[in-house]
Design a protein that fits this description.
Elements lengths: L4 E3 L4 H11 L3 E4 L5 H7 L6 E4 L9 E3 L3 E5 L4 H6 L1 H6 L1 H8 L4 H6 L2 H6 L8 H6 L3 E5 L5 E5 H4 E3 L2 E2 L6 E8 L5 E8 L10 E10 L2 E10 L6 E2 L1 H7 L7 H5 L1 H7 L10 H21 L1
Parallel strand pairs: 1-3, 2-3
Antiparallel strand pairs: 4-5, 5-10, 6-7, 6-10, 8-9, 11-12, 12-13, 13-14
């Protein structure tokens, strides 16, 4: 049986010291909902586990003048229930409430959900539509911020270098005119990996779309921003013709695969349906 060294830093200073000491040998754990199954199956064999789950700084949720700061170790259940998140980023709270089941939500963390970089990461599409940034600490204790749409590089591939850790998620406060919608489609209502998901943020001015942010999950090798759709919508009159005009562009944006949860053709069809439903609700609510 493999021996794993387990360490639990008491604060961020101790974490930084341990990160410098162990560098690329360190694997971070908070909720462990992805890591523990991977260790059991042999897909991941860490040498050193650094437990960041109880670090105060990485559990904080705070509202600042222009952004919402969410610690990477904040659990999905807490994000779903947090009054500040619900008030300023309801699209994220709604997505968090649909992730897995209560057991998973009470253990899983937002940082882990993003660092795992699954195409079906539930929090990724709403955070992409909110133009969130990921704050990363390297082995020298230096911090940098990466836009989430640049953080995801490919399937299970992120901007994290060996030994680096996500410390918090920074979400710019949406303007008062921005409205959001999110839909996750799974094979059952709860505890299901999504077949397709969509997140939309829209701002209207004088019956025109002033700003659009669109993101999808489970229909590409990584969670994606739909830049061509966004550009198409901005400046357009908010009328019914948009629903038919946008579908060819949508189909160019996504690249779904066929797997046990659904075929490529099915994913293309349902993605168009749930996107149009969100758009319709936002445009004429």
């Amino acid at each position: 049986m493999q021996t794993v060294e387990y360490l639990k830093p008491a604060d961020m200073n101790e974490l930084a010291a341990l990160m410098q000491q162990y560098a690329a040998r360190a694997t971070f754990i908070a909720g462990g909902t992805n890591l523990i199954p991977d260790m059991r199956s042999g897909r991941h064999r860490p040498e050193v586990l650094l437990d960041i789950g109880d670090l105060k700084a990485m559990n904080a949720i705070a509202l600042n003048d222009d952004h919402l700061s969410i610690g990477a170790a904040a659990t999905i259940a807490r994000i779903a229930a947090d009054a500040t998140v619900n008030a300023h980023c309801p699209i994220l709270a709604a997505a968090a409430a649909k992730l897995g089941n209560p057991l998973t939500r009470n253990r899983a963390t937002i940082g882990g959900n993003l660092a795992n970089a699954s195409p079906c990461a539930d929090t990724a599409p709403p955070l992409l539509s909110l133009e969130a940034l990921v704050e990363i600490m390297d082995v020298k204790g230096q911090q940098r911020q990466v836009p989430l749409d640049k953080f995801f590089r490919g399937y299970k591939w992120t901007d994290l270098a060996p030994g680096e850790v996500i410390t918090r998620i920074v979400v710019p406060k949406p303007s008062s005119g921005m409205q959001g919608g999110h839909t996750k489609l799974g094979l059952r209502k709860a505890a299901a990996i999504c077949v397709a998901s969509v997140a939309v943020m829209l701002e209207k001015e004088n019956d025109h779309i002033a700003k659009a942010r669109v993101a999808f999950g489970s229909v590409a090798p990584k969670p994606i921003r739909a830049y061509r759709l966004e550009a198409f919508f901005e400046g357009k009159a908010a009328d019914a013709t948009l629903l038919s005009q946008c579908e060819p562009i949508l189909q160019q944006e996504i690249a779904p695969i066929s797997d046990i949860r659904g075929s490529e053709a099915y994913r293309r069809q349902v993605t168009a349906v749930i996107f149009k439903r969100n758009l319709q609700e936002l445009l004429w609510s």
